[in-house]
Specification:
This protein has helices at about 5-25, 30-40, 65-70, 70-80, 95-105. The chain has about 110 residues and is mainly alpha-helical. The termini are far apart.
């Protein structure tokens, strides 16, 4: 009968450990790789140095360019449309999942390590 309490204790430790790992993995998720892919697929045809807008009003050629413009990127794809805020991309659209990735990345700080 002494093995039953030991088994229950070990089982509880394993369950708690697994739940802690799951929450740590969620907090450590990196959004920037997905953001960079979204920018490459949906934005660079206009917002690159050689794009149709020749990088205007913002250019997104490098990781640093993308991070420097994190607030504008988030506003352009996720905030309500207003005269001073036009939804992007103009010639295409983003899925709800892509928009959420950009919002999550911005909320974590909008840098390459997030």
């Amino acid at each position: 009968m002494k093995t039953a309490p030991l088994f229950i204790t070990l089982f509880a430790v394993v369950v708690i450990s697994c739940s802690n790992n799951k929450s740590q993995n969620t907090n450590q998720q990196k959004y920037y790789p997905a953001v960079k892919t979204i920018v490459a697929e949906k934005c660079l045809s206009c917002h690159a140095s050689n794009g149709t807008w020749a990088g205007r009003p913002i250019k997104l050629d490098s990781d640093q360019d993308i991070c420097n413009q994190s607030e504008i990127i988030k506003k352009s794809v996720a905030d309500p449309v207003s005269p001073s805020n036009r939804r992007m991309p103009q010639e295409d659209s983003l899925t709800a999942e892509q928009i959420q990735v950009i919002v999550n990345w911005y909320q974590k700080g909008g840098q390459t390590n997030q």
